[in-house]
Amino acid sequence: MGNIRINKEELIELTGKQQTAAQVKWFKQHLNINISCDAKGPILNHAIYSELLKKQYGLLPAAPSAVKRPQVILRN
């Protein structure tokens, strides 16, 4: 399977982002994937498409929430 193109509207619906840079950041943040782009926008390959399906069906582990920082106790 080669590269896959989804239309701009589907990409916006998927990521919730309109700008290519924001879409690339979304793929990195949600799927931990560095996605390639050209003049038309992000290029999906089979591996990325597979990860999207896993995310859609809830098969990916939840992203870790913000790490709680330890409290430092200062002495007087």
Sum up the structure in keywords:
3 helices; 76 residues; mainly alpha; single chain
What does this structure look like?
The chain has one domain. It has three helices and two strands, in the order ααββα. Helix content is 41%, strand content 8%. With 76 residues, the protein is mainly alpha-helical. Strands 1-2 form a two-stranded antiparallel sheet. A hairpin with a 2-residue loop joins β1 and β2. The relative contact order is 0.16.
Low-confidence stretches: none
Number of strands: 2
Round the mean pLDDT to the nearest integer and report it: 79
Helix content: 40-55%
End-to-end distance: 66 Å
How much of the polypeptide forms β-strand, as a percent range? 5-15%
Total separate domains? 1
Assign the structural class, choosing from mainly alpha, mainly beta, alpha/beta, alpha+beta, or little secondary structure.
mainly alpha
Placed side by side, the strands forming the largest sheet appear as 1-2
Give a short account of the largest sheet.
2 strands, antiparallel
Architecture blueprint of SSEs:
Blueprint: H1 8-15, H2 20-31, E1 36-38, E2 41-43, H3 46-56
Provide a concise account of the structure shown:
The chain is mainly α and 76 residues long.
